[in-house]
Amino acid sequence: MADHHAHHHDTGGHHHHHGILHTHAPTGKMGKAFVLTCAILIVELIGGWFSHSLALMSDAGHVLTDVFAIGLSWFAIRQSVKPADESMTFGYARSGILAALVNGLTLIVITLWILMEAYRRLQHPGHVHSLWMFISASVGLCVNLYLALGMRHEENLNVKSAVLHMLGDAAASAGVIVAGIIISFTHWYIVDPLLSIAIAVLIAFGAWRIVRQTMKILMEGTPQTVDFRAVVDELKALPGIQDVHDVHVWAITSGQNALSCHAVLDGNMTIRDSQQVLRDAEHCLAHFGIGHVTIQIEDGSHPHENRELCAHKEDALEHHHH
After folding, report:
1. What positions does the domain Cation efflux protein cytoplasmic occupy (predicted)?
2. Per the confidence metrics, is the pTM higher than 0.70?
3. What are all long-range contacts of 309-314, with beta carbons under 8 Å and residues at least 24 apart?
């Protein structure tokens, strides 16, 4: 697939590669996964209805989160290949992050519903038909393993989270199968709500992880894979750079990191000399997984706050008035 994010501006032999680190995801595989996951959801909902098993219903709840996750990832992947335009200069890659946030919050709601229902059933355990549990959960287990194994080598974070969902689902389905076997031999119907609570906890952990990651990206936080101090130290160590300040490192979407900073160069340096410094800086940052780099070049007399992190606007205005 063509990389829509690589724009080549030839400025005197100086090539810019923006977003080289963007990994495209397999749209076809995601489409297939979406259809098959919907099929599992229907089978488990019907099975849960006939067997009166909350564990199977909560497994279906878990699968529903997958339908969300895969549907959203599929949508996000198709959005992220749309080229940037004048109204969305960073492109549409972050639509996947918004989608993931909605997905994470929905999971938390589903978890609460399962816990409330499990609490009710622990007080009044009902009759559960284990054969239906067994059949429906087996379908879920097989399809999820088939999908997860087919996509386990993909790098895209959206796909990775979908694969984690599928493996979690497979584990939950396996749990339901075991519960079905226990109930058919012992008639301990209490096993069913207890397992539901375990599945709810599984969903909650996944949800919290998604919400935390998406919030960090939406808050323009420094990506987890980037060591801010190390980046600043490496930039300062480059020949020709006297100092750097006003450094920002953020992710446009997962796997697409960006950096902007002001670099103080020797005042006697020509523009041509400064190009070599820029090339060195871009090369150095590529090793940190930062593909989108913007550097403002200044000499020592340019007014600025003497710190790496940007000062608050009020401070900057104060500074101007003096």
Report:
1. 225-298
2. no
3. 309/246, 309/247, 310/245, 310/246, 310/247, 310/248
